[in-house]
Design goal:
It contains 6 helices and 12 strands. The protein has a 6-stranded antiparallel β-barrel with strand order 1-2-5-4-3-12. It has a 6-stranded antiparallel beta barrel with strand order 6-7-8-11-10-9. It is α+β, with helices and mostly antiparallel strands.
Amino acid sequence: MRNLIEFLKNYNHWFLFILLEVISVVLLFKYNSYQGSVWFSSANAVTGKINEMNSKVESYFYLSALNGQLTERNLMLEQQLRTLQEQMLDSQQLARLKDTAYYNSSQMPLLRNYKLIQAKVIDNSVARPDNLLTIDKGEKDGVKADMGVACGSGIVGIVYMTSAHYSIVIPVINTHSNISCAIDGRGYFGYLRWDGRLSDIAYVEDIPRHARFRKGDRIVTSGYSSVFPPGIMVGKVEKIYNSADGLSYRLQVRLSTDFSRLRDVCIINDETIEERLKLLRTAQDSIKPEQEKSK
């Protein structure tokens, strides 16, 4: 305390000087219009810069949520685009497009019947034959095994295993992946498989010999499985080969999903899948006794 009092005694003239300077500056800007306008302009410029920096920081932290929303939106728009393309292929359906009530009731995007769960890829590999990726959503978020996974540009894979907060996905670029696909707008379907080499190339096997198609045609999910709805983008036909036995075609497909840069995905939750799988298993179990009797 004694030191503080001694300090104030020794430097009291400096404190008095600073006080008088502050009072002078306040009087100068308060009672002089020109100096006041200069102060106001400078203060506004500083405040504007601070607000601009604050806005940029807030925008950065909102990017993660925005990317997830864009991924879901892109997936919905892809389904909408396919619906419109199918309608335009048929002149009768094209005329029906003029009837708004019909369009709203029966031609809505297929993904509207599905619940989309947004997730982020937290681990990924593209250079192994058994590539897997990990996402940050699990059982507590409603994710279950055998659910389809897609992103804004197309198909990703199928959920393989789940824990409370994470899930493992078998992507298209895994040699064990086998997904039913179709040539968009032509009706012919086959099975998408990966040969373990390039991460942007896969092959559609078992396309029938009588099929009509050409390079550049879109490959989409067929909807014949209980995992994916029809029409989700897979890629485009790049080359056409004969199968090993010569009885079908083998299509080289340039995948639409860039797995090396994959960040935001959506899990497609079809709430009717369990009912359909249960019915399918029941049918399979009932067929087995009949087959054994016939033997």
